[in-house]
Structure prediction request, 449 residues.
Amino acid sequence: MDKTLAKYRDARLPRYTSYPTAPHFTPDVTSRDYTAWLGAIRPDQKLSLYLHIPFCSQMCWYCGCHTKVVNSYAPVANYVKLLRQEIELVAAALPERRQVGHIHWGGGTPNLLSDEDFTGLMDLLRAHFDFAPDAEVAVEVDPRRLGKTQAKALAAAGVNRASLGVQDFNKEVQEAINRVQPFEMVEKCVADLRAAGIPSINFDLLYGLPSQDLSKLERNLRLSTALRPDRIALFGYAHVPWMKKHQQLIDEAALPDGPARVKQAGFASKMLGWLGYTQIGLDHFALPEDPMAKALTTGGLRRNFQGYTLDDADVLIGLGVSAIGSLPLGYIQNSPDFVAYARDIREGNFAVARGRELSDDDRLRRRAIEELMCQGELDVSALCDAGQVSSGAFDKELSDLKPLIIDGLVEVADHKITVTERGQPLVRAVCAVFDSYLEHGETRHSRAI
Prediction:
């Protein structure tokens, strides 16, 4: 194994789907702030929506999402009523009717919703927002719950991208994470979605799972690519049992160790390339004809709470329990507590639990981190010009890069930072140099690899 990767592999670093990252949100940001921030959105600023469905019919032990298991539909139906009220609140707080370019349904299990409730929520969104002609409507799908009827209902409601939680096709691994779904089930799910007219399919895969090895990972990748999903997200399993108590059900002795995770990550990346996929940033892959692959050369790649994306919206409104929104003036996060969320929404208030107001320095560092995560390079002089700061504003950061330069992770010439091929798996370590909030040991994050 590459000694450099071994040196950094166990570093605990943010995934940088935002900056500042969520652990640095504070309760100082309130519902009153959110109302003001929504009212300050300009007509020229693009808008997207994220809706969180925090329910599952069964808990997957690897899961890091905010969700809970329900045994009847009643809690889901009550939650749908709250979502409807929150949509009304947001629409009333905006200064004018707005167009949206992306709508993302996450969870939990969004396809746990009944066809009627999903369609009803989509109709309500259309009643308050104008959907762009090329709007992307994406839904995270549990293949164990989807059939032809639901696939048709999703398509009829306007869904044009489905993201399937696959993770792994090997039965031993599936049993170890409490998510058993044979290949044939996923194959049928993909066929039903495509037959219904949903053209774009994503797969979510994981490495670093219990009982995984290179042979199982190879089988997983070959089966996955045989179904030709347009995009694949390949994440390293984040074992954080101090945050997600159900992860304590995973046998830690069966988890691949640090060197094995590094081998799995490198092997998977190379194999997906051999199988015809273009690597996108740190952990995404796409067929060469997919717009995300093309964005690598056009500079259109972005990053938000869903990972790598083509969504260039200035405003991302989060709806639902624990949902995070990103606005020009700052971040907000709804309460993760169901009781508190329901109380606030029923009283006609936003259910904001915490957030972060952005400073000019935050915005500049966020831009630096996003360019490194998406493009693998950063022109520091251009960054300083854009932020109207002195040319030496990031001299300390450039100096802090010296150990990474020595280790071959980055190259720096004329104030331009380039992440090397060796450094690509460790790009988060490069980004961390620009993170003024990160103090090692204060907040526990997932492994770098």
